[in-house]
TrEMBL record:
<keyword id="KW-0350">Heme biosynthesis</keyword>
<comment type="subunit">
    <text>Homooctamer.</text>
</comment>
<feature type="binding site">
    <location>
        <position position="251"/>
    </location>
    <ligand>
        <name>Mg(2+)</name>
    </ligand>
</feature>
<protein>
    <recommendedName>
        <fullName>Delta-aminolevulinic acid dehydratase</fullName>
        <ecNumber>4.2.1.24</ecNumber>
    </recommendedName>
</protein>
<keyword id="KW-0627">Porphyrin biosynthesis</keyword>
<dbReference type="GO" id="GO:0005829">
    <property type="term" value="C:cytosol"/>
</dbReference>
<feature type="active site" description="Schiff-base intermediate with substrate">
    <location>
        <position position="212"/>
    </location>
</feature>
<dbReference type="Pfam" id="PF00490">
    <property type="entry name" value="ALAD"/>
</dbReference>
<keyword id="KW-0460">Magnesium</keyword>
<dbReference type="InterPro" id="IPR030656">
    <property type="entry name" value="ALAD_AS"/>
</dbReference>
<comment type="pathway">
    <text>Porphyrin-containing compound metabolism; protoporphyrin-IX biosynthesis; coproporphyrinogen-III from 5-aminolevulinate: step 1/4.</text>
</comment>
<dbReference type="InterPro" id="IPR013785">
    <property type="entry name" value="Aldolase_TIM"/>
</dbReference>
<dbReference type="GO" id="GO:0008270">
    <property type="term" value="F:zinc ion binding"/>
</dbReference>
<dbReference type="GO" id="GO:0006783">
    <property type="term" value="P:heme biosynthetic process"/>
</dbReference>
<feature type="active site" description="Schiff-base intermediate with substrate">
    <location>
        <position position="266"/>
    </location>
</feature>
<keyword id="KW-0479">Metal-binding</keyword>
<dbReference type="InterPro" id="IPR001731">
    <property type="entry name" value="ALAD"/>
</dbReference>
């Protein structure tokens, strides 16, 4: 039976308890909820990462990342056209190259006609107004899976920086609008900035992977770029310990001082606290990378019927905005933008 709760039932009224402050007033209807919403996600917040392979009309499914494919440069350009139609402002490209092109130093990154540069040229030709962001790390190009030159079990910082700097110039010449060094070598932001400026690329930006953590969330990505099983040892001598937040702030501060135009946190969801700290500390464009492991977990759970995939996708993307992100690199970008276009 219905029961009327009165002052006598509760001891005192709810208005007495809350001082007449009722938080649910602003939640009572759709229009009030929309009116007071603090953060919004739009297509402008999304950056679409894509994997590129050599060839023409080539599309290879990535088993560990349901719904995603490695694309040849011509198909990458078509994907960019679709992204532009959805209002996505930029594409981030990552290469998967044949094993015979890989070596200890990742020298194929210095080939002006490698697939990452082919993709940049094809995308800019097809969609001149979309942004192209290129990763300048060596791990897709090395036969050991590390982000740098490996010698006697050690990743050589300065030799790696020299090679990355040369590669960044080639990527800029191929049409990249933003160079995004993900290697975590000391000094690479300053070296790349100086080289770009010296060679007439003052308008090419740098999005620093300022805080890239030694995370377990990268597994599916390594399948996507063909480095699974290659890695000798781990990357803890250059990636940040997941336990350290103060160190992450110091890393970001150095990259800002060296000339980074934007900073990034990778992975995303496990590091929302880092995103918040960096945005509060530096007050500059701050991005997150919702990495392959985050994507694949959501996709797998959705495929098993354990979660509502669309709702979880949108909730996670909104969480990045709430933490302070100006944008998100996400494999969900195209799917999310299509959903936003319908609402």
């Amino acid at each position: 039976m219905n029961r009327q709760f009165t002052r006598d039932t509760l001891g005192r009224s709810v208005d007495d308890i809350t001082g007449s402050r009722r938080m649910r007033r602003n939640r009572k209807a759709d229009w009030t909820r929309r009116m007071v919403q603090e953060n919004r996600l739009t297509a402008d917040d999304l950056i679409l990462p894509i994997f590129v392979v050599a060839g023409e009309n080539r599309s290879e499914p990535i088993e560990a990342m349901p719904g995603l494919f490695r694309l040849s440069p011509d198909l990458a350009a078509r994907k960019a056209e679709r992204a532009a139609e959805l209002g996505i402002p930029a594409i981030a490209t990552f290469p998967a190259i044949d094993a015979e092109l890989k070596d200890n130093s990742g020298s194929h990154i210095l080939n002006p006609d490698n697939v990452i540069n082919q993709a940049s040229a094809a995308i800019k030709k097809a969609v001149p107004k979309i942004g192209v962001i290129t990763d300048v790390a060596l791990d897709p190009f090395t036969d050991h899976g590390h982000d740098g030159v490996l010698r006697d079990g050690e990743i050589l910082n300065d030799e790696t920086v020299a090679q990355l700097t040369e590669a960044a110039l080639l990527q800029a010449e191929a049409g990249a609008d933003i160079i995004a060094p993900s290697d975590m070598m000391d000094g690479r932001i300053g070296a790349i900035r100086e080289a770009l400026d010296r060679n007439g690329h003052q308008n090419v930006g740098i999005m620093s992977y300022a805080t890239k953590f030694a995370s377990a969330f990268y597994g599916p990505y390594r399948e996507a770029i063909g480095t699974q099983g290659l890695l000798k040892g781990d990357k803890r001598t250059y990636y940040i310990d997941p336990a350290n937040s103060d160190e992450a702030v110091r890393e970001a501060a150095l990259d800002v001082e060296e000339g980074a135009d934007m900073i990034m946190v990778k992975p995303g969801l496990p590091y929302l606290d880092i995103i918040f700290r960096l945005k509060q500390t530096f007050e500059m464009p701050t991005f997150a990378y919702q990495v392959s492991g985050e994507y694949s977990m959501i996709k797998a759970a959705a495929q098993n019927g354990w979660i509502d995939g669309e709702k979880v996708m949108m909730e996670t993307l909104l969480a990045f905005k709430r933490a302070g992100c100006d944008g998100i690199l996400s494999y969900f970008a195209e799917e999310a933008a299509e959903l936003l276009q319908k609402t």
